[in-house]
Hints:
This protein is mainly beta.
Amino acid sequence: xxxxxxxxxxxxxxxxxxxxxxxxxxxxxxxxxxxxxxxxxxxxxxxxxxxxxxxxxxxxxxxxxxxxxxxxxxxxxxxxxxxxxxxxxxxxxxxxxxxxxxxxxxxxxxxxxxxxxxxxxxxxxxxxxxxxxxxxxxxxxxxxxxxxxxxxxxxxxxxxxxxxxxxxxxxxxxxxxxxxxxxxxxxxxxxxxxxxxxxxxxxxxxxxxxxxxxxxxxxxxxxxxxxxxxxxxxxxxxxxxxxxxxxxxxxxxxxxxxxxxxxxxxxxxxxxxxxxxxxxxxxxxxxxxxxxxxxxxxxxxxxxxxxxxxxxxxxxxxxxxxxxxxxxxxxxxxxxxxxxxxxxxx
Length: 346
């Protein structure tokens, strides 16, 4: 039998696409080096003000690779409360809540002027009633390729294509019934993903409509990601359900994620950001001996929003914090999460 905690955990893995967390963005307003000096002088002359810093919103990935020879690190802390589920008919149903602490770090390195490599590692501390479990999660390796550099005074955006691989390093089978699902920390599946990430500062286009005394630049991001997941062997109680006698394979459902985000500069260093995320995951189907228990998950969808505040000390270090909560869904969890993060380029 699949516990409510396990159900929320698996749905949550699908809702939080790894590529969404490579939000490095302190230099995200960067354009091609041939335009860099021109842009800086253009802003200073036109607005008599500042070229703003950006850390990046909580979820949407950057449309710029890390510069050649630079490292970037971005740790995250999530505190998530799952307090209900959305039914097949999109109705919210209250349940006994549970908590999850998630510790995630993204490490990035610029391989060339147009390519970087990203490593994401994570761990979980899961709590459900009087039970808790700490364990390592799945690991993700990705590479980003710069396809477009934004050109000032045009509608041409920056664009990065990212290709990623998920490695099932988290615990997903041989679970104990007494742990009430808290000992699930991974999906058990290899996953190959691809995403297209766009961003554009539109104030540089409509410069004649801007009052120089009220300069608050907007930066927009839009990301599309799709992940194809493998089959995984399950035995006993596992992240997809089951009982002690369960043995077989699960074809883990593929996942689509789209995120639209904006950043609004309040000052040179303070920024308000908001992500709007939609996820859709295909059913995870079981074949084998189910041991008399339900194994597998139905297809699900989820809409969520994540407002945040950023503080940028300079063009290489910034911090942000905010909330992330579900708005609607089908066969998915109703949740609220609190997130904090910082990013450091060196």
